[in-house]
Amino acid sequence: MSPQVSPAMEQRNRASSLNATVETGIAVRSKIWMPYGDIILQVVSTQFRVNRDVLAKHSSVFRDLFSVPQPVNEPTTDGCHTVQLYDNADDWAELLAVLYEPFQRRSRPQFNTLAAMLRLGKKYDFLQPQQDAVSRIRYEFPSDFKAFNDLEADMTKIKYRRGIYCDLLNLAFECGIYSSVPLLAFCCLRENTLEALFEGVERDDDSRVTFSGELKINLALAFGKMALFQHRVLCWLRNDSVVPGRSCPSATRCTQQRNAMACVVDRDHGGQFNLGYTIDQWDERWTGMLCPVCEETAVAFYELNRAKGWELLPTFFGLAGWKDLKDDVDEFSTPCYAGFYDC
Predict the structure, then answer these.
(1) Given the DSSP bridges, would you call strands 28-33 and 46-50 parallel, antiparallel or unpaired?
(2) BTB domain: which residues (predicted)?
(3) Beta-carbon neighbour count of residue 190 at 10 Å?
(4) Cα–Cα distance for residue pair 328/30, rounded to 1 Å
């Protein structure tokens, strides 16, 4: 039988896990240095002077920490006790900027901000920042087919840049948002060549996003599976099984146009499969190429296979089906992607 732990002892254990001691060495003050702050967070060697009540309001971990009496003889800086943390200082700079400057953060957050809200939100129970970040990722990369169909062409909840899909895929695995992994992985394959995914995808600042060896293998295998699936479901572009239809008034013309539609697919990605045809909506370049009768039939057939592609999407990446993909995050009922300060 496990020994009983009192609530007071549990609080002290949580507080000690934050290691409220200052290591020797030179600490650098960050730009976030509140003149009326009453606590200093030292993240490795970077210090942030902030307010206990702000941290306690948003984080149950810090709320518990501050409820434990501080040692009387503990050294202070500018009259403030110091809490030593072993995280990424840039993550803390991003999260604290969100907490202290919410009105400047109303637009789509950049990846670094989103990642900080998610990582630190999960670790220290900053509930609203975490919920906001999770909501944005789930919105842009849903596990529901209807929600996917309702998405706009460009991301509206997260700021786009080169390599964003790859960064988000790594983040989703890191923080347990597994329901968004299939669509994120698909977007990585659709936007990048396998060569780029293996060597590292460039960001806007010319740095590169890299994947683990296991993930690279899974992406390569998924590419092959989706290419085969797409080849099968697009066979109608290369035979008479769908177009021209029995009621087609211009069979010769529609046959020629169907062949031209196949050429559109072949030209994409330098002759390689454009994997977008696995789940993306009807190609607008095809609209009007066939007679109305054949186009209606072709669209219906395409949509049927697109729905099949969506159902199979997780399995292409070696994952469980959509219904069995569970996120490792606390569930919440209200989407917060308008900004956690509006929740």
Answers:
(1) parallel
(2) 37-100
(3) 17
(4) 32
302/33 Cα distance (integer angstroms): 58
Taken in order 320, 159, 125, 122, the sign of the CA dihedral is positive
pLDDT tens track for 275-312: 889 999 998 889 999 999 999 999 999 999 999 999 99
User: DSSP 3-state assignment of 202?
Assistant: strand
H/E segment holding residue 201: strand 201-202
Report the predicted TM-score, pTM, of the whole model to 2 decimal places.
Answer: 0.86
pLDDT tens digit string along 145-193? 999 999 988 899 999 999 999 999 999 999 999 999 999 999 999 999 9
Q: What distance in Å separates the CA atoms of residue 37 and residue 14, rounded to the nearest whole number?
A: 23
- Using DSSP's 3-state secondary structure scheme, residue 50 falls into strand
CA 92 to chain centre: 19
Q: What is the CA radius of gyration of the chain?
A: 26
Termini Cα distance of the chain: 42
Query: Rounded to the nearest 5°, which phi and psi values hold at 187?
Result: -65, -35
The residue among 190, 172, 305, 192 whose CA lies nearest residue 242 is: 305
What the block records as the tokens of 259 is 């062949």
Q: What is the pLDDT of residue 25?
A: 58
* Six-digit token string for 320: 């469980």
The residue behind tokens 């002892």 is: 9
- pLDDT tens digits, one per residue of 115-130: 999 999 999 999 999 9
Between the CA atoms of 250, 253, 255 and 257, what dihedral angle is there, to the nearest 10 degrees? -130
* Per-residue confidence (pLDDT) for residue 12, from 0 to 100: 47
Write down the CATH number for the domain with range 7-104. 3.30.710.10
- According to DSSP, residue 338 is labeled T
Residue type, 279: I
CA-wise closest residue to 310 among 273, 283, 286, 276: 276
Q: What is the pLDDT of residue 26?
A: 80
Q: Where are the domains of the chain?
A: 7-104, 129-211, 231-316
Which backbone phi and psi does 320 adopt, to 5 degrees?
-70, 165
